Amino acid sequence: MEKLENISLTGRKKVLEKKPMNFMERIYLPSIVQGLAITFKHLFRKKATIQYPEQKREFSANFRGIHSLKRDEEGKERCTACGLCALSCPAEAITMIADERKPGEEALYREEKYARVYEINMLRCIFCGFCEEACPKQAIYLDGDIAPADVDRKNFIYGKDKLLEPLLK
Amino acid sequence: MDIAFIIEKAILISVVLGISLVTAMYTTLAERKIAGFLQDRHGPNRAGPFGLLQPLADGVKLFTKEEIIPREANRFLFILGPSLAMLMACVGTAVIPWGEELQIGDRTVSLQIADVNIGILYVFGVVALGVYGIMIGGWASNNKYSLLSSIRAASQNISYEISMGLSLIALLMMTGTLSLGEIVEQQRGINWNIWYQPIGFIIFLTCSFAETNRNPFDLVECETELVGGYHTEYSSMKLGFFLFAEYINIFVTSAVMATLYFGGYNFPGMDALAEAGVAQNWITLIGVAALLIKILFFIFFFIWVRWTVPRFRYDQLMRLGWNVMIPLAIANIVITGVVMYLFGL
To answer: Who among B40, B202, B304 is closest to A47 (CB)?
Structure first.
């Protein structure tokens, strides 16, 4: 019968023998010098730090940043205020007020219904991207930057002024 | 005793005090910078170019912080603690010979503030008094963690002072004098004491780590067991003084080590320079620079060791102090004596 402490199911187990330290180990100095040499080498290593505000790490392709409300090719707002994004939002960060498109506003809004107010609370948002997935009109994408810091809670409620894609001339 | 003498000493005292304070100030930055470099980071680099204004920013921050004195604390002792720590750290530099003599006009100016004939004992006494600041501070805080920490500090310092003193005795047997000025003069050129007393130097170095409460013997401060250590209750500049005194102590200890074992202001080739006809004043100034370079190296070494060696446990610290360091120091004395007798020194 094999002893329990010798069984290694993963094959990675190493039984270490605890030997008493010999003289060279007991005076510590060789290992201290060795350690000092290792740390000294690190003085000249390349730094791992990225100097954030000046340097930025490149985002990965599926990075989810700040939301933007998209326009179509003619510059009309795609959003039709169906509310599916707000419904899908697990953090309940999205609110909107829908309105009917008036005659003469066809150049501004693509559908007959549009969002007069569209607000995302960036303190609540968890950047899960469900709104992006839920949107039937491809009107919202999380393709922006990292949400900036602020000292006032009010400033974290992003309205259409901050979210809507600027018009391309 | 003429008026020129007083002016000369006053200038010397201000310069030495200024150098030690500025060095200590920038040691705080160097500590953080080197810590960063050793860990592949940049260290502070936002305040000024390369973070050079960081010590000033830290100082301003500490001065403007709220000053809190606990209600149950002993007010007088609470303020005395950091003051004493700071004072004792500053007076240690008085007996260090900073250089040879300078000739200004027809006056010979000694670059040592006071050539006391018991210089080593003076340094030793000042270092021993330094722990009183910590003890008084810890006691006056009326906090059990501060008290425990200061008791630790006291027992650690007392234990390591013994082996430090014993390692010095071997050195004194060779030099035959207690005056730091004469000890440095004996080490002219590269005839440094480190070549004769390597074991003594290692003991002295280890003990000076314990005396300045630096890693690996920084048991006086510990976040894990003692909620910070003896300065738990301190805030604002009183805390700053405690931390700053530690850095001045490093400077003083480095200066003492450079003086005792590494020839102080002596540098290889100083006699050759004198023969080549270089003015004595220039040699003196180069010597001062040599001493400062040695001191800076030791300061770097203190920081380097701090970020390399893990700290000792308290019982390990005591065992090292009493069971290893003291017997080793005594053995060093015996060996020194035997060698001196055999070679008829």
So the answer is: B40
